[in-house]
Structures are given as C-alpha cells and as structure tokens.
Design goal:
Keywords: FAD, Flavoprotein, Monooxygenase, Oxidoreductase. It comes from Bacillus yapensis. This is 4-hydroxybenzoate 3-monooxygenase. One of its GO terms (molecular function) is FAD binding. With about 400 residues, the chain is an alpha+beta fold. The protein has a domain of about 220 residues: FAD/NAD(P)-binding domain (3-Layer(bba) Sandwich). It is about 35% helix and about 30% strand. The strands form four sheets. Strands 6-5-14-15-16-13-17-20 form an eight-stranded mixed sheet. It has a six-stranded mixed sheet with strand order 8-2-1-12-19-18. A three-stranded antiparallel sheet has the order 3-7-4. Strand 15 and strand 16 form a beta hairpin. The longest helix is centred in the C-terminal third of the chain and has 23 residues. It binds adenosine-5-diphosphoribose (APR) and P-hydroxybenzoic acid. The site of adenosine-5-diphosphoribose has 29 residues, from helix 1 and helix 9. Adenosine-5-diphosphoribose binds next to helix 1 and helix 9.
C-alpha cells in the first residue's frame, strides 16, 4: 500500500488530521488498534474551545455539534460556601465554549471520513514505524493475521501517550518533561437532569468537585480522590454523599440519580518537545498530556493537527518546507502555555492535604482575586476559551 500521510491512531488528532488533509486533496490512511465501536464509546472529556468549534463547523463536521452541543458563556467557581461567575463571553469580547462529548466528535469524524471514502483500518495489531529518518518512511502492521506495509511520505503519530510513535524517536533525541500531581479524579455519568446552566468548579476543604453536563438527562460529575484510590471503594452512596458535601449550598442542591459509569484517573503533565523527527510528526496525547482541570487535552490535539495539515498543504501545493520545519516550535509554545494554565487551575482548585493552613490561605486568596479582579478574571477567561493559534 502507498499513501501520502500514514496516520497512526483514530482519536481526535488522527481523524481530524485525515479530514483536514482530505480537504486539501492530500491522501492518508488511518490505522487504529481498537474497534470502531470502542473508540466511539469511550468516555473522555467534553469541553470544546471556541477555535475547535469553529474549525469543526468550518470544515463540515459540526452539524450535530451545533444541534446537540451546549454553548456556555461562563463558568462558576465555588469556594468558602459561595459561588462566583466568570463571565467568559463578556471578558473575551464574545467568545464561548461548547460542551459536547469527545466520543461524539469521534463519531462525527469517523462518519464524515468514511462518507468521503477514507481508508481507516480498525483492529490493527503490532504497528511498527520504519525508516522514519528517510524520505520514504513505512508502517508495518497486522490486520486479520496478515502482515501489511504502508509506504508514505510522512507518518503522523496520533496514537496517544502509550502508542508506538513517540517511542520510535531515539530516547537521546527526545526532550521530555514530566510532572505528577498528588490528585486523582473520580468521574461519573449519572442519569439526572442538569443542576446548573454552567459548569461549577468547586474548591471544598474535603477536596475539589466539578459539575459538568452531557445532555438534558445525563450529567458528568468529578470528585478529587487520592490517585491510588480504587473504584471498588466508592459505592454510589459514598460518591453522592461526597459530591453533595462539596457542591451543595444552603439554597441549591445537586441533582442525583442512577450512576451509569464510574472510573478513576490520575493527573499528570507531560511534554515531548521533540514533536518531529525525520519524517515522523507527533500530535495530541502522543506528545503532551495535561491535567483535565483546564479542559485543554482535546483542544491541544486539534490545534496541533491544524498546524500540521497547513504545513503539509504548503509542502505539497507550494513546495515550501518552512512550516514543517517549525512545527515543533509553533506547537510547543502553545502547549507550554496550556500546561501552565492547566497546572495553575489544578493547584488553585484542588485541596492539597500536604499543604499548611498558610498555603491553603494563599490558595483561597487566589480564588478571591480571580473572582473579584476584572483583569485576573479576564486572564482566566481568555485561556479557558482558548488562546489564539499564532504562527
Ligand atoms: N496502533 C494503532 N492505534 C493506536 C495504538 C497502536 N499501537 N496505540 C494507541 N492507538 C490509538 C488509540 O486506541 C486511540 O484511539 O490511538 C488513538 C489515540 O487517541 P486519543 O488517546 O484520543 O488521543 P488524541 O487523538 O491525541 O486526542 C487527545 O484529548 O481529552 C483528551 O486525552 C484526551 O483522548 C484525548 C485527547
Ligand atoms: C467534562 O465535561 O468532561 C469536563 C469539563 C471540564 C473539565 C474537564 C472535563 O475541566
């Protein structure tokens, strides 16, 4: 087999890249080791920045997002038993975010790609990258027990943190940074009506809680837990007791209902600044992980492939390599700012039980400042709706 761009991974990064390349008349093949059903059913994040929404809409994959997504003009921060609204719309000159689950974005992208005749191979095994330092890199894999090879001009590694792409870059060439946070998130999906028109990020002395939504009858809630916690220790009753304690106010109670899904994830930051090596280009979780408090993971993946597809367009249609050469530099600058924002939101909102009362006092003062100073709130709002993609 031969294609122009061999894409490993059918997450938001890989699928969107394939879609954007197709719109430029550039051919790609996508390889995914899970089934279509699995990628379309995995519960992940759900906040789309203004720029992500515009890109999806502007490239013809935003129809369902417009119908079913929920546009939010603000978020609420809760601490010391009081709730404070950050009016993102006013603070950013009219911008907003849209709550629309990541697996719904996946469904829309897969449907669109298949409708346009894309080659997506699901359930592939044993994906290997070869000759990435040459002008003719190759991907080998097995499909239904048969060994296959794709020869391409470029390989896009969109295969998440654990995929083989990043590891194909010699360790000595990779510049990586890691940080782990002493926090985990227990996430649930519950059958209940929405409790609030906007997301609530609550700093409570027992720990952080986040109230998000999915639809008029399914809600998404998160609780800060110890990262080593096991989900078996969290009965539905225990989850509701803790959620009510951390978000309820005198005149406001969280809507609860049957829990239909629950899991625990740990929180970390990771950046591989070497986003390009030879003819291999990394995008999305394959090259950076952010803690979910800033809601940036999916949006960073989409921003990477926006830059990459433009760079490839310049290469194929204008014989220009400048943007391809600058790919790592352009993306990592923005990724570092998103890391900074995500780490800041994480530290401001979570309860660190190792901290002294003084340090907790500073944390509450930070929340007080952000919710009372227009310029501090503006900075949060600008980053939450998404910094511009500059290059
Ligand atoms: N071969 C083929 N595909 C692979 C392999 C492999 N060896 N390893 C992983 N994959 C696939 C995964 O199954 C997954 O579908 O690569 C895909 C990577 O997708 P994501 O993990 O969703 O990563 P990305 O597309 O970068 O999206 C960014 O935003 O909200 C965040 O972390 C969240 O998924 C999210 C991300
Ligand atoms: C979600 O709805 O899944 C969500 C919302 C906001 C976040 C993280 C996750 O910061």
């Amino acid at each position: 087999m031969r294609t122009q761009v061999g894409i490993i991974g059918a997450g938001p990064a890989g699928l969107m890249l394939s879609h954007l390349l197709h719109l430029q008349g550039i051919d790609s093949i996508v390889l995914e080791n899970r089934s279509r059903k699995e990628i379309e059913g995995t519960i992940r994040a759900g906040v789309l920045e203004q720029g992500t929404v515009e890109l999806l809409k502007g490239t013809g994959v935003g129809e369902r997002l417009v119908k079913e997504g929920s546009v939010h003009h603000g978020i609420e921060l809760q601490f010391n038993g009081r709730r404070h609204r950050i009016n993102m719309n006013e603070l950013t000159g009219g911008k907003s975010i849209t709550v629309y689950a990541q697996h719904e974005v996946i469904k829309d992208l897969v449907a669109s790609r298949l409708h346009d005749g894309a080659q997506i191979y699901f359930d592939v095994r044993d994906v290997r990258l070869l000759d990435i330092e040459t002008s003719s890199p190759k991907i080998r894999f097995r499909k239904d027990g048969v060994e296959e090879e794709i020869e391409c001009d470029f390989i896009a590694g969109c295969d998440g943190y654990h995929g083989p792409s990043r590891k194909s870059i010699p360790e000595s060439e990779r510049k990586e940074f890691k940080h782990t946070y002493p926090f985990g998130w227990l996430g649930i999906l519950a059958e209940a009506p929405p409790s609030n028109p906007e997301l609530i990020y609550s700093n409570h002395e027992s720990g952080f809680a986040l109230i998000s939504t999915r639809s008029i009858d399914i809600q998404r809630y998160y609780l800060q837990v110890d990262p080593s916690e096991h989900i078996e220790n969290w009965s539905d009753d225990r989850i509701w007791t803790e959620l009510h304690k951390r978000v309820d106010l005198k005149d406001w109670k969280l809507n609860d209902g049957p829990i239909i899904q629950k899991n625990i994830v740990s929180m970390r930051s990771f950046i591989c600044e070497t986003m390009q090596y030879g003819r291999l280009y990394l995008a999305g979780d394959a090259t950076h992980i952010v803690p979910p408090t800033g809601a940036k993971g999916l949006n960073l993946a989409i921003a990477d492939v926006q830059v990459l597809s433009n760079a490839m367009k310049k290469y194929y249609h204008e014989q220009q390599t400048e943007l391809l050469t600058r790919y790592s530099e352009i993306c990592t600058r923005r990724v570092w700012k998103a890391q900074r924002f995500s780490a800041w939101m994480t530290r401001m909102l979570h309860r660190n039980f190792e901290h002294s009362p003084f340090e907790y006092g500073l944390q509450l003062a930070e929340l007080d400042l952000v919710t009372s100073s227009q310029s501090a709130a503006k900075s949060l709002a600008e980053q939450y709706v998404g910094l511009p993609l500059e290059y």
